[in-house]
From TrEMBL:
Record organism: Streptomyces kaempferi
S-adenosyl-L-methionine found in the keyword field: no
Keyword flag Ubl conjugation: no
Protein name: Acyltransferase
Alphabetical list of Pfam families matching this protein: Hexapep
UniProt EC number: 2.3.1.-
Chain ranges passing through the membrane: none
Length: 265
């Protein structure tokens, strides 16, 4: 027979679990870093609406880190300027994030020399960006003891950087570029391109006359019609497939676009 003590223990465990989850959510909200509540961090600039999620990754050299408006920096993201803490890096910023940049959980941005990330760039989790590479010129000296090579990194606005991608020193990525998951990028990447592989190469590119080459294999997503409110979207999300099909039949009978009727429902 089941033990009453075990049943009580299970009930008590659920209460403790709920309390721990609620407490952790409170800690995450309270300990996140914003311009109004920077904690111990003193960034060179941190814009309106920007938030660094807790728990933080390694952050140092923040005086030379400039963060734009409405950026989201995920949990355990490392942001560093300089080879080590407490260095004087001069008057100019070393690491710049434009407005609306999203850095996914566990990503690293290591800026020993200039790293610039343009506005509206989105990083998946565990992306690694570095301006420094180890050198191995001297075959008799341990590689970790040899002075590294440094080259600036620039990522243009509007890029999407996939999970686990690595951006190496000297990379210059253009505007609205897709970097595939796991790609390893160095050198120049043109605007409006898709790159994949290690080392990364261009696998698709936008041509003003011919469009995407090679052509895309799936149709473009249909955007949400203008004027649709969040309340209407929530109402639509509660409809089952049969109700949606019925709305489509009514649209066809009335000779109106389906999206318009649903937007008004």
């Amino acid at each position: 027979m089941p033990s009453n003590r075990n049943a009580f223990s299970s009930w008590r465990r659920r209460l403790v679990q709920r309390a721990v989850h609620a407490g952790w959510a409170w800690v995450q909200r309270t300990a996140s870093v914003t311009a109004e509540h920077p904690g111990r961090l003193r960034f060179g600039a941190i814009g309106t609406g920007t938030r660094l999620a807790f728990p933080l990754g390694t952050v140092f050299g923040e005086r030379w880190i400039h963060l734009g408006d409405h950026c989201i920096v995920g949990e355990q993201v490392t942001l560093t300027a300089g080879l080590m803490p407490d260095l004087d890096l001069g008057p100019d910023p070393i690491l710049r994030l434009g407005d609306g940049v999203v850095l996914g959980r566990g990503s690293h941005v290591i800026a020993d020399t200039t790293v610039t990330i343009g506005s509206d760039c989105y990083f998946g989790p565990y992306v690694y960006v570095t301006s420094t590479n180890h050198s191995y010129d001297d075959p008799h000296e341990p590689i970790g003891k040899q002075w590294p090579r440094m080259e600036p990194v620039e990522i243009g606005p509007g890029c999407w950087i996939g999970t686990g991608a690595v951006i190496l020193p000297g990379a210059r990525i253009g505007r609205n570029v897709v970097v595939a998951a796991g790609a390893v990028v160095r050198g120049a990447v043109p605007d409006h391109a898709v790159v994949a592989g290690a080392p990364a190469r261009v696998v698709r590119r936008w041509d003003p006359a011919a469009g995407w080459q090679p052509p895309l294999r799936t149709p473009a997503p249909v955007p949400i019609p203008d004027g649709v409110t969040p309340e209407q979207l929530l109402a639509l999300s509660g409809l089952d497939e049969e109700a949606v099909a019925r709305l489509a039949e009514l649209d066809l009978a009335a000779g109106e676009p389906a999206a318009d009727v649903r937007a008004e429902s």
